[in-house]
Amino acid sequence: MDQDWTVTRITREHKDKAWKQLGTSGSGNHFVEFGALTLTEPADDLGLPAGEYIALLSHSGSRGAGAAVCSTYSSIAQSRLPKRYTELGRLAWLDLDSEAGQEYWTAMNLMGDYAAANHDVIHQLVAKLVGAPIRAGVENHHNFAWKEVHDGQEFVVHRKGATPAGKGVLGVIPGSMADPAFIVRGKGNAASLNSASHGAGRCMSRTKARDMYTWRAVQNDLKKKGITVISAGADEVPYAYKRIEEVMAQQQDLVETVARFDPKIVKMCGDGSKAED
Predict the structure, then answer these.
(1) Do 230 and 275 contact (CB within 8 A), yes or no?
(2) How confident is the model at residue 276 (pLDDT cuts 50, 70, 90)?
(3) Helical H runs in the chain?
(4) Are 171 and 54 found together in one domain?
(5) Does residue 263 sit in helix, strand or coil?
(6) Residue range(s) defining the domain that contains residue 103
(7) pLDDT tens digits, residue range 160-215?
């Protein structure tokens, strides 16, 4: 948190909130999970031999400060859209040579650093509480933009629902609370702009999931799988997500699997319903 939070008005006004929320997960599909991590082969880039490990997997973002940055500059971009493009709505953009564009780029990168710090604090605190040393870790951004060179030309690559998968780059691709996640190593596929999917992805909207399921309706299935869910919402039931194995099978040209993570204890933002004993 030693970065300059005065770079924009929005970051300056939300620094205190960011400090209070540091080390928290948030709502939506954000989670913290304990699970079993299985490496069938040694991973030199992780410094781990083959075997099974207790692992902590978290998915969170830049919390309230990041939401404010996104909302503010998205609104500015939409307000400046030429009339012929107004139907694009939230797909509006800001010229990076403009003052607002430079502000947003700076604020976005600050929020990326904050999101990474947020993950780090969560993992450090949990490791301290359980009294376990951290053997290795993988952290990667998604829903973020990078300046990169492809085919000799610089581009801004925005990976929405995607994550970097450059040659040798480690990443994490989650499934759902009932399905495995995978640590992967990028293959550097130029056709995908060195990218892979960030996760399984939804096959059902949050509204439809809430209409079709209640939290208690899936508890027995999860218990049979040996998964304890401390809290979650009906919008995050496993059936709302695509099958992660199918998703992984479709991107074998983008990443190779390094390890498999099977969730055992899951903590998400609840929807008000209580878990049964």
Answers:
(1) yes
(2) very low
(3) 9-13, 15-21, 63-79, 99-130, 206-212, 219-224, 244-249
(4) yes
(5) strand
(6) 1-24+60-134
(7) 999 999 999 999 999 999 999 999 999 999 999 999 999 999 999 999 998 998 87
How many structural domains does the chain have? 2
Q: Are residues 90 and 8 in the same domain?
A: yes
Q: Do 110 and 66 belong to one domain?
A: yes
From CA 143, how far away is CA 157, in angstroms rounded?
10
Could you tell me the end-to-end alpha-carbon distance of the chain, in angstroms, rounded to an integer? Answer: 40
Name the residue with tokens 């702009």: 193
198 flagged as catalytic: yes
Residue 63: left (phi > 0), alpha (psi -120 to 50), or beta? left
In the numeric block, which tokens belong to residue 4?
């300059």
The pair of three-digit structure tokens given for residue 60, joined into one six-digit string: 């969170």
Report field, pTM of the whole predicted structure over 0.70: yes
Residue among 101, 117, 90 nearest 15 (CA): 117
In eight-state DSSP terms, residue 273 is: P
Going by C-beta distance under 8 Å and a sequence separation of 6 or more, which residues neighbour residue 123? 56, 58, 134, 137
The dihedral built from the CA positions of residue 136, 142, 148 and 151, taken in this order, carries a sign that is: positive
Q: Which distant-in-sequence residues (6+ apart) come within 8 Å of 222 by Cβ?
A: 177, 178, 228, 229, 238
Query: Residues 114-173: pLDDT tens digits?
Result: 999 999 999 999 999 999 999 999 998 888 999 999 999 999 999 999 999 999 999 999
Query: Which one is catalytic: 14, 59, 123, 198?
Result: 198
Q: Please, are residues 127 and 27 in contact by the beta-carbon 8 Å criterion?
A: no
